[in-house]
Automatic annotation (TrEMBL):
Signal peptide: none annotated. GO terms for molecular function: ferrous iron transmembrane transporter activity. GO terms for cellular component: high-affinity iron permease complex. Belongs to the oxidase-dependent Fe transporter (OFeT) (TC 9.A.10.1) family. This is High-affinity iron transporter. The chain crosses the membrane at residues 6-27, 39-59, 71-92, 149-171, 191-215, 248-265.
Length: 284
């Protein structure tokens, strides 16, 4: 669980730092518009406030529920978290290349028109999006895994944010040590594995509620890696691995990875079509 918390906070914080860094860099390089920086940080604070309110709302909702209703709520949040992770991966694949240009155009337009509140909105949306995703992901993991202490959560989150600051600093070196492309390629694979783990756990929760029948295991690989062992448990929590999966679990894996493969194929076709359009227009 600690590893999951650290990874999610690290990855989401780097994305938020990327957006804030792009906006701040433009303001820094255009000294005449330095007044816009307070609007930028106002947006950051507003985004954090949205994430905090969401976290409070989820905790309060959990507090007023008990028994089977709480189990249904938590199972739903686990599945929602899995879906959001997949959505985030493909959103970044679609918008990542144009993100810097779009943000710079937005802040430049705000500076020229004097409507700095648009920078506040840009920053608030970015931070609120990453912060809200972090809240939902973490809640989903808490619902899916064993109970952890408050200090464990705080410590892992702080370590994740510190690692994000370090990673962002390394990425700013311009690819000499670590490139943005490599960072996103590796972390998107890790995120998809984590989404599969949450999806698998969520379906298991539905089975425990009697909505999906339990059946005999399809195979047994516990002699290679037992998911009840310490190391096997870490692998299971990060990837969805099960040593003795039943047919429902195997179906989950096939549906999940089959769906991801289809989304990758669709994204590839869209990218090719987008690259071909300018070339076609240029020849006309």
């Amino acid at each position: 669980m600690t590893t999951q918390i650290l990874f999610i906070v690290w990855r989401e914080s780097v994305e938020a730092l990327l957006v804030i860094g792009i906006l701040n860099a433009w303001i820094t390089h255009n000294a005449a518009y330095s007044a816009g920086r307070r609007y930028l940080w106002g947006g950051v604070l507003a985004g954090l406030a949205v994430a905090i309110v969401l976290a409070y709302g989820l905790l309060e909702a959990s507090a007023v529920m008990s028994g089977e209703s709480l189990e249904y709520f938590q199972a739903a949040l686990v599945l929602i978290a899995a879906g959001l992770i997949v959505q985030m991966v493909f959103w970044m694949r679609k918008h990542g290349r144009q993100l810097k240009r779009e943000l710079q155009q937005g802040v430049e337009s705000a500076a020229e028109s004097g409507r700095w509140w648009t920078v506040t909105i840009l920053a608030a949306i970015a931070v609120a999006r990453e912060g809200s995703e972090t809240v939902v992901f973490l809640y989903g993991m808490f619902a899916a895994g064993p109970a952890v202490s408050t200090w464990t959560v705080v410590g892992a989150s702080a370590a994740g944010f510190a690692l994000a600051l370090l990673t962002y600093g390394v990425l700013q070196l311009g690819g000499r040590v670590l490139s943005w492309r490599l960072f996103f390629s590796v972390t998107e694979a890790m995120l998809l594995l984590l989404a599969c783990a949450l999806f698998t756990t969520g379906i298991g929760d539905l089975a425990s509620l009697g909505l999906i029948p339990y059946m005999d295991p399809v195979w047994d690989t516990s002699f290679i890696l037992d998911d009840m062992s310490r190391f096997g448990g870490i692998v299971a929590s990060l990837t969805g691995y099960r040593a003795m999966p039943d047919p429902a679990t195997v179906t989950v894996w096939v549906v999940f990875w089959g769906g991801v493969a289809l989304l990758f194929a669709r994204a590839k076709r869209v990218n090719k079509a987008g690259e071909a359009a300018p070339a076609t227009a240029a020849t006309q």
